[in-house]
Design a protein that fits this description.
Elements: H1 2-15, H2 24-37, E1 41-52, E2 57-68, E3 72-79, E4 81-88, E5 91-95, E6 103-108, H3 119-124, H4 127-130, E7 131-141, E8 144-153, E9 161-167, E10 173-179, E11 185-195, E12 213-215
Parallel strand pairs: 6-12
Antiparallel strand pairs: 1-2, 1-11, 2-3, 3-4, 4-5, 5-6, 7-8, 8-9, 9-10, 10-11
Length: 224
């Protein structure tokens, strides 16, 4: 009888208990996942900073990107001018005459997304099960208020840790930084982001320039 009385006395408390509030981390993650889920195409400008802690050197690259999810991507560099990365849905073409003139690398498209280059897909595909996620503060990027998150993979991935900056208003990713196993730190800042905008005709087609040799996956040492 006492057990029933105790249960009866507890029920009103349960009925009027305040709803569980969502944590800031969960709220930011859910907003980013929802924003990514609505994307069909993306166009943006980018700045990429590559920092090598072993040499203390930093390289800055700039350009534009266009993407049609899940596996088409076009990256056109303005600095270094002429470098291109194109995923056409079947193959990934890496053409960098600034550092490797006279050759282009052709690789298979990886794991269902832009040759494995689509880090956004890795960040926002079941992030709560794949990463340990913590807050990393706030920042204004390109005039946009963002919340930053630390992402540490629970299983080995192509990077050891990442920081992502999520737009407070629309959930888009405005900046990300990954630390690769080699120690290389890659920070990419996005601007002029246009979601679900038309892409340029032929953006995801790569034509091998005259006189350029095509090398395959085996690679970087063997020609197909």
């Amino acid at each position: 009888m006492r057990r029933y009385l105790l249960l009866t006395a507890t029920l009103p408390l349960l009925a009027f208990a305040p709803p569980r509030t969502q944590s800031p981390v969960d709220g930011t993650v859910d907003k980013a996942v929802a924003a990514y889920g609505r994307m069909k195409t993306v166009r943006a400008r980018f700045e990429q900073r590559l920092t090598n802690p072993l040499t203390g050197s930093t390289v800055v690259q700039r350009g534009t990107l266009q993407q049609r999810l899940p596996n088409e991507l076009a990256v056109a560099f303005s600095d270094p001018r002429g470098d291109r990365i194109v995923a056409d849905g079947k193959a990934l073409w890496v053409y960098t005459p600034s550092s490797a003139p006279g050759q282009v690398i052709k690789l298979p498209v990886g794991a269902g997304s832009a040759g494995g280059l689509d880090l956004a897909a890795q960040f926002w595909s079941s992030p709560k099960t794949r990463y340990t996620i913590t807050q990393a503060g706030t920042a204004t990027i390109g005039g946009r208020a963002t919340r930053a998150l630390n992402l540490v993979p629970k299983q080995p991935m192509q990077f050891n840790k990442a920081i992502v900056w999520i737009d407070v208003a629309d959930g888009t990713m405005r900046q990300f930084e990954v630390t690769e196993p080699s120690g290389l730190v890659r920070r990419v800042t996005l601007s002029e982001i246009r979601v679900n905008a038309p892409v340029e005709k032929g953006a995801f087609t790569f034509t091998v320039p005259k006189g350029v040799k095509v090398y395959g996956q085996e690679a970087f040492g063997g020609k197909r």
